[in-house]
Amino acid sequence: MDIKKTLIGGFIAFIMITSVLGFIYSGEQGAQEQQQGQSAGKRIYNDYIFLKTGDGWTINLNKQDLFLDYLPDELTEIDFSANLINLANKEAGQGKAYIITNGTDLGYVKKKFAGNLRILGIRAVDGCFESMADISGCEELPIINCGKFAVAFKLGDEEEAGIDNKCILFEGDAGYLNKAADKFVLNLLGIN
Questions:
Q1: Residues 146, 93: one domain?
Q2: Cβ–Cβ under 8 Å, residues 149 and 91
Q3: Is the pLDDT of residue 23 over 80?
Q4: Is residue 42 part of a domain?
Q5: How many Å apart are CA 68 and CA 130, to the nearest integer?
Q6: Of the N and C termini of the chain, which has fewer Cβ atoms inside 10 Å?
Q7: Mean pLDDT of 106-127
Q8: Taking residues 48-74, what's their average pLDDT?
Q9: Are residues 20 and 85 located together in one domain of the fold?
């Protein structure tokens, strides 16, 4: 009987000790993740919480999800000039931006970008440059001459970002333009 009591007591003591150790270890790991603000599906940049989705990342702003394909640290190779960032912040504050594309392959980029601008309080309006007026689909759209704020995405061979008066021009393949769109939105949030 004494051996049975000793075994049961030892077993209970073992369970209690391992439970306490498990609790302590998980508490330390959780505290480290919370201190770093990181976990497998969560990242924090400039007090914005990025949550992983099946297709990318979201930031909840005013109960609406802003959608991004890339985290800020995945966009470090894209560097916007200070003039571009200043123009974007100044003109975006007016609440309206024309979005111009020159390719049908950019439907996803354009739709995501326009949706994100809307969440940021900027009305996105489709437009065409004067040089594109004869292109199919431009007949019904406003013709823009860079005297109005516009963001243009142009399919091309070289990756670049530039300014022409009040127009911000991004050129590159569809992958680069998608990254540039995310970087632009992050810059509007103050995340560089």
A1: yes
A2: yes
A3: no
A4: no
A5: 30
A6: N
A7: 93
A8: 94
A9: no
**44 located within any domain:** no
Instruction: Judge residue 45's burial from the number of C-beta atoms within 10 Å of its C-beta, 0-12 exposed, 13-18 middle, 19 or more buried.
Output: middle
**Residue 160 maps to a domain:** yes
- Overall domain count for the chain: 2
The residues near 170 (Cβ < 8 Å, ≥ 6 apart) are 151, 152, 153, 154, 160, 161, 176, 177, 180, 181, 184
Beta strand 150-155 pairing with 48-52: unpaired
How would you classify the pairing of strands 57-61 and 64-68?
antiparallel
Mean pLDDT of the region 109-121: 94
Q: In the chain, which ranges are continuous DSSP H helix?
A: 2-36, 82-92, 107-119, 174-188
Residue 180 structural domain: 81-188
Rounded to an integer, what is the distance from CA 127 to the centroid of its chain?
24
Query: How far is residue 16's CA from residue 46's CA, in Å, rounded to a whole number?
Result: 42
